[in-house]
Amino acid sequence: MEETSREAVATAVQRVAGMLQRSDQLDKVEQYRRREARKKASVEARLKAAIQSQLDGVRTGLTQLHSALLDVKDIQGSLADVSKDWRQSINTIENLKDVKDAVVQHSQLASAVENLKNIFSVPQIVSGTTLLIEQAELLQAHRKLMELECSRDDLMYEQYRMDSKNTSDMNLISIYFEDVQELSDELAKQLWMVLQRAIVTVRRDPTMLVSVVRIIEREEKIDRRMVDRKKQTGFIPPGRPKRWKDKMFEVLECTVGTRIEGTQSVTREADKMWLVRLLEITRKYVLDDLIIVKNLMVQCFPHEEMMGHSELYSECDINQLEPLLPQDVVDELLSKYVQTFTSNITGWLRKALETDKKDWQKETEPEADQDGYYQTTLPAIVFQMFEQNLQVAAQIDGDFKEQVLKLCLKQMNTFLIRYREEAMTYKEEHLRDRQLPLCYVQYMIAIINNCQTFKESINSLKRKYSQSSEPTDSDAAIERTLNEVAKEGCQFLLDEVFLDLEHHLNELLTRKWVTGSHAVDTICVTVEDYFNDFNKIKKPFNQEMTSEALRRVVVEYIKAVMQKRITFKNADERREGAERMIKEADQFKFLFRKLAAGEDTDRLCGAIAAIAEVFKLTDPTLLFLEVTTLVSKYPDIREEHIQALLAVRGDASREMRQMIIGTLSENKVSYSGLTQPIFKDITVPTITMTTMTTMTSMATAKLLK
């Protein structure tokens, strides 16, 4: 401790020596002493707070440890009780054999009761199912059949469980349900009939073929379930497994054989060219049928197992065959293709953009997607071109597909640069006559939305046609250009808004504003009206645009303050002006919360209210504290801003202004940059010599007059 004290004294001596190196600094001894006292008090307060925080943490930790110890003891007691109860229950379980037997009997009786309704109505259900089969309502007929089979199988299973050797009762149940087996056979006949005519049925009534396949799938699941139950219990219902799936393939194979054999219309004796005719007819029928199978029948069969048949395999190993063209010829052809493709795609993209530019001049709004966002057809046209060429490239070679994809992305980057230039030209032409084009705002929104569509389409192409996850050379440039086009488009739209607001913004903090002005009401109504259209902008651009609109409104308002358009004459005028500013800040806050400008709304609108508090203050001696509060909330504020505020307030003496500025300069708060600055881009106009001369001349002339 003594050594620490000596080091502290030595450090203090050095600090004092540094402060009092010149004689003129002796006058500031009292000021230095107060400053050091404040620093000492601040350090002591922080130390006390830190120690108190540590003590509170230790106290909380001890409390939690004590609570955990009690919980552990409770758990130990509960585990002991559970162990005791478990040992006592072992004997009880052995005495529950009678209850188990009763449960089995209850299960059998419940099953009987459950099936009583179906048992007594079997003849009626059989007749109804027969009628459904005749009417070709196969799915409903099969559902009824499954209900009957389920009732029969449950009864037989319960009888088997009670007395598996009692064949007389089993025969009695089988005789009662004998119509069910006949019903199943009749339904099977209908299924095979539909499958025999599958080529015709799939064109006329594909729903019928789908129903047949679904019925067969159901029966396969029941077969598997019954086989599994047999492994566990030894019981399997009569007629199981039906194996209708195997029968389906037999019927299809027989149908194909019959169709080929039926094409022979003449014999050798009748026509010497009979074989040629037969092969030609067979070729035509097989080709037609395969087209139907590929385009129509595949959708009806969930697992197309026929296409994996061994007889359809190639008769030789294709990999062992020599290439049809030498590699140098192939390379030359691919090189010519790339050159032709590059030339063509450049022309296609130019034409597509020219067509899109013509649409920008239309007097009707652009189309909207399914979510209501404005868009043009440009992204769809561009990526349809890319998609078609990539499909061709994919058929040639994987490496060539990657090469064409990179070429597409490179062309896309060049195209987007021109797209950006055309959007800029579109805006400049509009500024020459703001009445034209009629739908300028809507088409600028579509241009912004197209950027998001371009991004999504590029990612889709890369996922589909690229095996590599590494970014290409064009990726960063495309992303940057698209963001710039969207950002500039949003900026153009906001410029359009603020051109309409310019007159009303110029009214702020003027004599007209003090006496009564509806400028802010008009600003809010105009912004909300524009943003009804801006709702058609896709995310994330709409959110960014709303936030930027809020920031620009607040900055323009504060600019009006900093331009010192008025100087308040007295305390009443300052109070009324401040209350009006607070009210208008609340108007902005309400509007932009409604527009979902983000979590920064309160901080930005709060800058206007904080400035108003500086004006509202009635005691000038407290002005330093109010300004300090403003600076602490918004550390990017500069000295010239403070001077402008004090000038608008109108009652701060020169000495007070110097004291406030000097003290703030000594204790300047560093700007961390974590929040978006407000005052950084706001300049305070300075009075030039020419302006002062003019003002002096005007004042002199006024006095002489």
TrEMBL record:
One of its GO terms (molecular function) is SNARE binding. Pfam families: Sec6 (PF06046). One of its GO terms (cellular component) is membrane. Keywords: Acetylation, Cell projection, Cytoplasm, Exocytosis, Golgi apparatus, Protein transport, Transport. It is found in: Cell projection, Growth cone; Cytoplasm, Perinuclear region; Golgi apparatus; Midbody. One of its GO terms (biological process) is protein transport. Signal peptide: none annotated. Belongs to the SEC6 family. The exocyst complex is composed of EXOC1, EXOC2, EXOC3, EXOC4, EXOC5, EXOC6, EXOC7 and EXOC8. Interacts with EXOC3L1. Interacts with BIRC6/bruce. Interacts with MYRIP. Interacts with SLC6A9. Component of the exocyst complex involved in the docking of exocytic vesicles with fusion sites on the plasma membrane. This is Exocyst complex component 3. It comes from Cyclopterus lumpus. The lineage of its organism: Eukaryota, Metazoa, Chordata, Craniata, Vertebrata. The gene is exoc3.
